[in-house]
TrEMBL record:
One Gene Ontology biological process: methylation
Presence of keyword Transferase: yes
Protein name, per record: Class I SAM-dependent methyltransferase
Stored Pfam families: Methyltransf_25
Keywords of this entry: Methyltransferase, Transferase
InterPro entries with a match to the protein in the record: Methyltransf_25, SAM-dependent_MTases_sf
Organism: Kitasatospora cystarginea
Domain Methyltransferase, chain residue ranges per copy: 55-145
Amino acid sequence: MAEPSPHLTATADAYDAVAVRYADFVRNGLDPLPLDRSILAAFAELVNTSDAGRVAELGCGPGVVTAHLRDLGLDVFGVDLSPVMIDLARGAYPDLRFEVGSMDALEVADGELGGIVSWYSVIHTPPRELPPYFAEFSRVLAPGGHLLLAFFESEGEPVVEFDHKVAPAYRWPVDGLAELARAAGFAEVGRMLREPREEERYRRGHLLLRRR
């Protein structure tokens, strides 16, 4: 097995170190975010309607969004780089499946999944290393399967690194991320941009895509 890239190791170590505090911080994180919940609901409806298979939340952290997707009726499991995060997710949601792994090398058969959610997880990938992630998403999704991305949007600027509180991360122009997805075989279904709340720094971007 190939050695993980330095940024993967560094990201896993950084989230291991703050996992307990992070899990406490995000425990009710979706409650005040009706727009964010709405696009998760739209994703769930599309996947449930197509009946294309299981859903993976990639970069699931302590499992909050995974559990929310379960509550929306999806057959879902979570994957995360951080072993400590996965232990916390398993403890909080013992009825769900959680695995340690990297979203660029999934232990999933070709076309096995009906949906993927990457909720603020591709943000930690250096831009030059991101295309293989989309190729892996395309590999594991069935034709017609859906991909939902949430990320920090760059507000008219090109891709820019910013001082994320846990690990180095990047803000993306929504058109730039959509173009990477198109190059990997995805068609855009819709997008949602949300202005930052009072306690947030940056605009939030969401892309809903379908594998062609």
